[in-house]
Amino acid sequence: MLKAEKKMGLIFFPAYDWAISPNHPEREERLLYTQDQVLEEGVLDIEGIREYRTRPATVEDIRRVHFCVPDEPSVTTESHMISAGGCIVAADAVMKKEVDCSFALVRPPGHHATRIVHGNRGFCNVNIEAVMIEYIRDTYGVRKVAVVDTDCHHGDGTQDVYWHDPDTLFISLHQDGRTLYPGTGFPNEVGGPNALGATMNIPLPPHTGEKGILYVLENLIMPALERFQPELIINSAGQDNHYLDPITNMNFSAQGYARLSKILNPDIAVLEGGYSIESALPYVNLGIILAMAGMDTTHVKEPRYDEQYRPQEDRISSYIERLVEELGPYFFEGKWGGPTYEIGSVATKSRVIHYDTDMISDNQTEHVRVCGDCGGCWKIHSSSTRGRRVLVVHIPRNACPECVKKGMDWFDREEPEDYDHVFLQDRTNRQYLVK
Amino acid sequence: MILGLDVGGTHTDTALVSPGGVARVVKTPTGSDLLETLTEALTRALETIPLVKLERMVFSTTLATNAVVQDRLDPVGMMVMAGPGIDPELYSVGPCYRTIPGVVDHRGKEVVPPDRRAVEGIREEMGWLGLDKVGVVGKFSVRHPGHEMSVRTWIKDHFSHVALGHRISGGLNFPRRIHTTYLNAALNDIHVEFVQSLQATLDRLGLDAPSYLLKPEGGTILMDRSFDQPAHTAQSGPAASVIGAIALHCTPQTSLVLDIGGTTTDMAVIMNSAPLLNPTGVRIGPYKTSIRSLYTCSIGVGGDSEVRIDKQGNLRVGPNRQGPPAAMGGSVPTPTDALVFLGKLKAGRASRACDAIEKLAQKIEKRPEETAERILEEAARVIAEGASQFIQEINSQPVYTIYELIEDRKVEPERVVLIGGPALCLAPYVQEALGLPAAVPKHYKAANAIGAACARVTTEINLHADTEMGKAVIPEEEFETSIGRDFTIENARAMAGERLKERALRQGANPEELQVTVCDEQVFGMVRDFQRVGTNIRLRAQITPGLTRKWMHELCEI
User: Fold this and answer.
1) Of the candidates B105, B171, B536, which has its C-beta nearest A303's C-beta?
2) What residues of B are in contact with residue A42 (Cβ under 8 Å)?
3) Could you please report the per-residue DSSP string of B388-399?
4) pLDDT of B49 strictly over 80
5) What is the rounded CA–CA span in Å between residue B436 and residue B429?
6) Which of A211, A215, B289, B371 is the most exposed place for a label (fewest CB within 10 A)?
7) Residue B435, phi then psi, degrees to nearest 5
């Protein structure tokens, strides 16, 4: 009987009774063929691979990350809670050392969900990785975490959640935002004033292939991880860089994903997007599972890979080599420039967040206390086209006394009459208040 | 009158069961020759009974299991069609295991047709090696049996037996399909020979009732219909006991069944008068198969388990067994000795049991009576701990829909049924340790043979329909038909029900017990490019294991 080199936990929750709408890419059928392939390959009989039953996340789990407007039940469904819960089960398995690594093959995905949730964005409501990471931090006392988002779409939700957090290195590799939803994820997005350089965006040209993605991984992402020295590496394992994906334009493959997983060697992988449900996902997922378990992946290919796959064009290879040459010093030597901030001052930024699925626009103005001692407290005024006006205040984990005081002050001073709700997410004292 | 017979490691139990109740149970020693053992057991069971009219006979034998464990398998060549995925060479089995071109994907679409020239080449190679039997297995062959069937057509004249993967189980699991197909082919001769000899013996004894073999899921199959699936009659022992427990405790309550033996205690669960089945398949020797079986778990505590004092000075029972109990001439104290000491059981020489217990008592500086009680409490504690882990394992099986997760149906036993030799004496201790009411049927020592007698014919089929491809397949029946775009789950249920009944009747089912249960069904709309293009239906239907005659529900002894 086969034996895995590394013990691995598998959380499989295909949500066979949930869809955004009947013909939507995020529908019941999405993981059906993946499950068929995994079962037929006898993966669950491999010694060392263990399947876990998922469970729903709790409202408390969600409140470590999000401000749900007006409340959690209004903007989440059971499926979101279970998908996030699946990630938490994956985390527990690793943190309790029952397994060496784990893969949460769950849906719906989460990496477009931002801090303030008014509805569904890019098929996501709840940021399942962030909910898991904050659960890990509170339960197991982990500080430094790296998230490597290999979905084809920029992980703008995760970037938003960790924009001000110097303890979370967020790296996103994606199809260039000028050519694909959500249209963000440029190299100059490097994090807030207290966390400069803890966000890394690597936009890749359409048609980037196995060679290009692995080149970026080995020459940019792995060195970044080496510098950051995270306690945990999380992979937001979107599978829509695949050459057969119907809603993107990349040229990656099951072999590529298997190599990527082997090199990146994440502690926990979480499924994100990927909509070539029949021709790509079964093989990509099998490749990721076997690679994470330290097993041979030589034969994990799309059935017609040898005749279908076109290696990356030379012009793309040279573009990517140049990109890596420029981005290396940019990230690693902090050459991003921009304004300098005075410690103790408050930096302000305004922006509009668009919710494609639910057709909502959210006007946000954000204030963050520039701090030399912690992640800094921040507040956001948010008013959505649904007519809701809220103020949210965040005090980070291990906040300095100044930031705790400032955050509490913001929360206490605001009169609820000016807003529909005022929220406080106090991660230092682990409280969540609404007025 | 129905005869049930269960061959165990040391004893063979035979029971005669009639509407009036359990008419007779007989225990005979199990010898080295299976046929002689059966003859002896049958003769003893039927002697001095005026010629009864037997309605049917059911045998639960160790033939297949022993042949596997003792490596008495016939050489079988294997032809495997894999395609992308895990390297099929890793599942190599038998003296000549060859992969051939031919690929089917998860939907049952042909990607690469099988290569006749390659097949012929391997067939020749197998001919040189003198291989007479062959197994042909394809990945996803249950979705598209055509490839295996083509290969069979090309080679069947050159082999005495060709076993095909898709006929064995409609479930998905390629490695298990390979190994189960291999076992069925490798056990074919030995099984056929056994059935023929047993038939001759039965003829000689004047026993002409239909004969059945018990399967590990607790169902039966007509003996002369079992030739293609000999491996499906392995490991039937635990099933015999559990069906016996169903017959003898007769309530729809969820019950935990504990079959306490000499070395181990086997656990199973009964819900709604049916045993809980294992979601994957039974393991036979080193082979993981796709053969359905009970959900069982074995813990290393029985009447003959070794009692010892560990380094911390705690009294421990099991998991080792060091020969027979002290009362029977063994060297170490056992729970059986504790029972003998306390006067709860008569076995062997009481003085030896007393010596062993007293010696142990001195070591832990307790009175011998207290020591004997502690042994039994400890044995019960270990059993209870194993039982709660077992239930927890059952309840942590993954589910794949929101409905099931929210519903969160849990197995929660309401009582425990104890069978096997030490059952009666240990019942109070187990009841205490588990915190569940314990019941011990009158024939607790022969529940296995009674179970064999009472088991009904069971069978299972899987249906996979894909309206975009316009076909429905029932691999076990080698049935494939074209379907229209309007084919629905109702059509699928009707089609599966009809085929299942035919199959069950062929395997010897009583026409009155053809209750079809659809145990799983899934329906998916298939969408490509934002358009609905078809429906994908998966359905599994079975005749559930249980009691074969209505009157058996009156056998209750509790």
Assistant:
1) B105
2) 86, 173-176
3) HHHHHHHHT---
4) no
5) 11
6) A211
7) 70, 25
What pTM, to 2 d.p., does this model score? 0.94
Beta-bridged to residue B266, according to DSSP, are B259, B298
**What is the chain B residue with the closest CA to A51?**
B398
Query: Which positions ≥6 away from B231 have C-beta within 8 Å?
Result: B64, B180, B183, B184, B187, B284, B289, B291
If DSSP states are collapsed to H, E and C, what string results for B68-101?
HHCCCCCCCEEEEECCCCCCHHHHCCCCEEEECC
Cβ partners under 8 Å of residue A269, min gap 6: A101, A102, A103, A104, A234, A235, A237, A261, A288, A292
End-to-end CA distance of chain B: 22
Residue B232 sits at φ, ψ, to 5 deg, of: -70, -5
- Evaluate the omega torsion of the peptide bond into residue A14 and state whether it is cis, within 30 degrees of 0: no
- The Cα B155–Cα B183 span in angstroms is 19
pLDDT digits (tens, 9 = 90+) for A381-396: 999 998 889 999 999 9
Q: Which residues of chain B neighbour A16 with C-beta distances below 8 Å?
A: 400-401, 522, 524
pLDDT at B481 over 70: yes
Q: Which chain A residues touch B406 with a CB distance below 8 Å?
A: 56, 78
Q: Using alpha carbons, select from A156, A157, A127, A143 the residue that is nearest to residue A65.
A: A127
Could you tell me if B139 lies within 8 Å of chain A, comparing CB atoms? Answer: yes
What are the angstrom distances between the C-alpha of A351 and each of A248, B226, B550? 26, 73, 74
Over residues B224-236, the mean pLDDT reads 93
- Look at A212-226, B361-375, B491-505 and tell me which has the smallest mean pLDDT: B361-375
What is the C-alpha radius of gyration for chain A, rounded to an integer number of angstroms? 21
Q: Which amino acid is at B27?
A: K
Q: Which positions of chain A have pLDDT values less than 70?
A: none
Q: Which of A16, A299, A305 sits opposite B86 (nearest CB)?
A: A299
> Residue A286 and residue B85: Cβ atoms within 8 Å?
yes
Cβ–Cβ contact B182 with A under 8 A: no
Decide if B175 touches A, using CB distance below 8 A.
Answer: yes
CB-nearest to B83 from A18, A28, A303 is A303
The answer to whether the beta carbons of residues B327 and B352 sit under 8 Å apart is: yes
* Predicted confidence band of residue B50 (pLDDT cuts 50, 70, 90): low
CB pairs under 8 A between A and B: 124
Helix axes B188-204, B34-46, angle to 10 degrees: 30
Nearest CA in chain B to A303: B84
CA dist B364 and B371 (Å) reads: 8
Tell me whether 0.90 is exceeded by the ipTM.
yes
Per-residue pLDDT reduced to its tens digit, B409-442: 889 999 999 999 899 999 999 999 999 999 999 9
